[in-house]
Amino acid sequence: MAAARRERSFFLGLLPLPERRAVAEALRTETVGGLLLLAAAVAALIWANTPWRDTYEQIRDHRFGIPALGLQLSVGHWTAEGLLTVFFLVAGIELKRELVVGELRSPATAALPVVAAICGMAVPAAIYLCTAAAGGGSLAGWAVPMATDIAFALAVLAVLSSHLPAAVRAFLLTLAIADDLGAILIIAVFFTSDLNFAALGGAAAGLVLMWALQHRRVRGWWWYVPPGVTVWALTYNGGVHATVAGVAVGFVLRTTREKDETSSPGERTSHLLRPVSAAVAVPLFALFAAGVGISATALGEVFTRPEPLGVVLGLVVGKAVGIFAGTYLAARFTRARLNPDLTWADIFAVAVLAGIGFTVALLIGVLAFPDPAAAEQIKTAVLTGSVAAAVIAALLIRRRNSIYRRLYEEETRDEDGDNIPDVYQQPGDRSGTGGTGE
How far apart are CA 379 and CA 207, in angstroms? Predict the structure, then answer.
């Protein structure tokens, strides 16, 4: 028993069947959502660089809502503060699931993705701070290059890979979940306005009410939507970014099943809202956040001004170095280690791919730089850095995919057509038992 306890834990080894299904469902949905996100971002860029740019800006800046409740927002703010809350609600549920019953519930298995995520946030922030300080720029954007866009990254991985081990996708997903938790904490702690403690107290009361409802086994979405919307509105009016309300609600929902349940409240909510998040909330946010004017002058400023240059270097260099180094350190100095199906070349490719920091990076950029002109430069930098990371990662992933494809072809080759791969047969053997004949 003592020897078994001393034995290292495999990270992303054979998962229980419910966990495997949960990971597979998340991968499928986020991949599709990433493709929709890509389409929305491209549409926004095209629209913002055509003669109809004024129409785009008028729609994005059109304000509507309920002024008496402090909810008179522009379309762009409704997507960032409202619709994106659905994305963070689903992320909150996934985070809690991983912490309670998933890969992050045990220190041994959580060490690798958590350390990798922390290093993958700290190194980009440090690179930004050094670049901005050296150029005499603003240090306010230190958090912009810290976040990984899981939907975008999985979409790129899905398009380019067909033979990579499933553990590569699962590693990226688990890493991004830990990364999301860090980004959420950063938004909650560093990007808040003057706090209204009465409103925040009301939001906390709403969370307690939702917890009590599910504790008493109250089912039916109509019981939860009103307090959920109230928590969101009070959080916004309390001075905290409204997306934090989505995470808070996600953490309140129970993710473990009781004896007579086929699914937990968290599972049911995630199942219902994940398609809305992937197909509606995130693409609409991208549509009204990624519409920046692209010109030779704007691109030139990305590489000549310290703030946008720090963002680009943080995403392209900082993410790759931070995640790869963090993974190595965790595997070297903790009880966790990689699944044997993964190689360090796979990890480096994933680390580069994690430099795609679209959704949350754009959100933090707007929060860090309220000035529209500065925000446009940061948006251009986020897009430039994300595209650069995607291109470099694409080259690495295609190479890894070709290697795994050759291995797959060798393992499945059946030149004699007997439905037994040749690798299992010695020359002259037709039994499929490796020549034993038994």
Answer: 34
Instruction: Give the DSSP letter of residue 337.
Output: E
Is it the case that residue 130 has pLDDT exceeding 70?
yes
CB burial of residue 68 (10 Å; 0-12, 13-18, 19+) = exposed
pTM: 0.73
What is the token pair recorded at 205?
């009361």
Domain assignments of the chain as residue spans, ordered by start: 11-191+241-408
Tokens of 168: 């590569």
Segment 234-257, tens digit of pLDDT: 998 888 878 888 888 998 998 888
Q: What is residue 429's DSSP assignment?
A: -
- Structural domain 11-191+241-408, CATH architecture: Up-down Bundle (1.20)
179-236, pLDDT tens digit by residue? 877 887 888 888 876 778 899 999 999 999 999 998 888 888 888 899 999 999 999 8
Helix-helix angle 359-368:372-412, to 10 degrees: 160
* 188, amino acid identity: A
How many whole angstroms separate alpha carbon 265 and alpha carbon 268?
Answer: 5
